[in-house]
């Protein structure tokens, strides 16, 4: 059972048709990619039955999806996206971002606070929460900012946001670092009483002024101002020590360096309560991409070197880095198709992440689909204490699921994506597997690889 003792469920679940009207029969899926094909009957928002052939047991009105030989996983959970609403609806909205999430296999996402206005008060968080519920393609959880206006000076009212209808349970100034150690200490002490998560964007700003690329040989040769590893690692180290001495729940956003991995390995060895995520792009892309000066490759933290990607991959396998988060960051073409040092940092990620992780760790690695379920669904749901997601695939469990077609290769093209933006760093890259189906509380949100239309 979900332990809700310290975490009230995040508001009422979205309304969905009840009973047989809503029944769905998944035919012939491989649960976690294992064993013999099974039928899975979904009804009333839960997994009603699992068996070899449930054709005769499904209600006559049930939607039957022939998914023979496809892999059934728990619905994916992304702790770190930017859906840009309110303020930049020209680049993404709750609705378009939810569609991108559904298309990528996600059933829950946490959308960061660096909106305009900043998500630093309950009314803004509630508006995002309600828009997510109305769209009903994915559970959208607003992240509150740690400091008012992301200015790093004064704490926001965590309690007011936690008590709102949005039931905010994660706070972050992501995009900016809470670099003032006194403010971070106060945030930890304040957060402890409410058992909320603090997600830190680790960047010592005095070491990254004007920086646009990883500080290394490539940036030096191309004449780009460098963003050194130590700017990230010094904050990771500081916050690990803060977590040791002051407790709380601290989460490290988008780990990008080999040194961060070493620090996390040390911290976890000391039983310091700290969790961490890595993005797909920091697992596979390096600063060698900068040769073209294409703004699509500008991201924060920057693409590093091969040894960083290798260390991060191993850390994810070892559990030193807990989970994958996309840091899906839509930007307009004008903000990306310009001089490299003028381009806004950030990349799309929701619609390509499952294929990239499967390619890297299952198809070309020695991990199995249980590993993908762990790092893309179970761990992020545990870290965020999110009820109903990242649960075992078993009778009686909530029907938050995704299905991966391992025989459907495709090419990543921004124009085919549900996101409103086109800053896709994998443009033209072959993707070996595709999410065919996503299901949110028994309701199909993605069918044949396409998000269902909403009003
Ligand atoms: Zn960030």
Automatic annotation (TrEMBL):
Annotated GO biological process: 'de novo' UMP biosynthetic process; purine nucleobase catabolic process
SUPFAM superfamilies for this protein: Composite domain of metallo-dependent hydrolases, Metallo-dependent hydrolases
The protein's Enzyme Commission number: 3.5.2.3
Domain called Dihydroorotase catalytic: residue spans: 69-257
Coiled-coil zones: none
Cofactor binding notes: Binds 2 Zn(2+) ions per subunit.
Needed co-factor(s): Zn(2+)
Annotated catalytic residues: 327
Keyword annotations of the record: Hydrolase, Metal-binding, Pyrimidine biosynthesis, Zinc
UniProt-annotated binding residues for Zn(2+) 2: 174, 201, 254
Binding residue positions for Zn(2+) 1: 80, 82, 174, 327
Sequence positions that bind substrate: 82-84, 114, 300, 331, 345-346
GO CC, one annotated term: cytoplasm
Catalytic activity: (S)-dihydroorotate + H2O = N-carbamoyl-L-aspartate + H(+)
Biological or metabolic pathway of the protein: Pyrimidine metabolism; UMP biosynthesis via de novo pathway; (S)-dihydroorotate from bicarbonate: step 3/3
MF annotations from Gene Ontology: allantoinase activity; dihydroorotase activity; zinc ion binding
UniProt similarity note: Belongs to the metallo-dependent hydrolases superfamily. DHOase family. Class I DHOase subfamily.
NCBIfam families recorded: PRK09357.1-1, pyrC_multi
General function of this protein: Catalyzes the reversible cyclization of carbamoyl aspartate to dihydroorotate.
Name of this protein: Dihydroorotase
Species lineage: Bacteria, Bacillati, Actinomycetota, Actinomycetes, Mycobacteriales
Gene from which this protein is expressed: pyrC
